[in-house]
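ESCALATION

Customer reports they have been waiting on this structure for their group meeting. Please prioritize. Original submission:
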Amino acid sequence: MTDTAAIPHGVPTERDAGPFAPASEITRRREARPVSPMVFPDGHVGWLVTGYDAARRLLADTRFSSRQDIGVLHEPFEIPGMPVATEPSPQVPGIFIAMDPPDHTRLRRKLTGAFTVKRMKELEARIEEITERQLDELARLTPPVDLVREFALPVPSLVICELLGVPYADRENFQVNSSRFLDTSLPFDEKMAAFGQLNGFLAELVTQKRATPSEDILSDLAVQEDLSVEELTGIAFLLLLAGHETTANMLGLGTFALLEHPDQLAELRANPDLVPGAVEELMRYLSVVDIGGIYRYATEDIELGGETIPAGSTVIVSTLAANRDPNRFENPDELDIHRSARGHLSFGHGIHQCLGQQLARIEMRAGFAGLLRRFPDLELAVPAKDVKLRTNMRIYGVHELPVTWTRSA
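Update from on-call: job pushed to the front of the queue and completed.
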């Protein structure tokens, strides 16, 4: 039996080093042992990867499986009421991020045409139009306002609804249930109820689109007879969840970070040409999809970062720690909008690299550029210490961002 007394238990989630930095314990682990054993909440001894090189190698190595139906992927967070996993879970149709080739390849290939760089560039003007319209709505409000509710969440929600063909009038359904599904503090049965409600809504939607298709991505998929309704529902779930949650949190947390770095904010306002590079740097610096967003199952004994990962081990990656690795990025704990942040792992790496990354980039560029242009004296309406952080969520960010201004353009 493995003696676990000297092995760290659980994932540190408290942001004791500040709202934008990894937990100090995570940083210490990266400096001492970038690939280190960790006891999961159910007692399984797995591994935590915090070094950049090891994380990148892991994500490119298909011997680290994403499938939950061939081995037990152990949950890195202690979720109330969640049963201890003792055997593999059935594969959920359409959830291709939890698949390996060839199943992953078959489903992802169905979507590559919808998210090409060329097609995203063609959509850029429409995304900017949606962003400006939401900025108009924001300008009509009397501050202080919650930037998350009034801007950061609506913009990507409007965009992904239009792309997928999801009625924006149904946003409360998917926004509330997505949030509950991602909340690690909620009891397991409540999370599963949220998942069930969202899946039921999407199953009905894709069934309608199969019967009466229109001009949107889900309709394009629904007319393909080799995809079952269950697969269509799973794909829709992934695209809708990823399409609004990640970008919304980047817009909210990114604005918070810029307001807390006034020198960087001033430079960005003075020179909008810096926005594309600033988006990449904010992605690196904040890494909102961190622990719990990427974990794998070792299908055989694998050497990684000087350690031997035994077959059957669950391995999780801290993208935030990896993106702050001083062996990869100079002065990594500084937000520097002039930095070339290329190579960051915030969109993942390897076969599971984010399919919608170009869409996210366009949304963030439009969002940050428009917000800084339209609200030249935007500032926090509460002390920074009072901003509510999403430490209980699988996708990090702020629950609310109260802001104020005296003039808008």
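Sent to customer with the following note: The chain has 14 helices and ten strands.
Escalation resolved.
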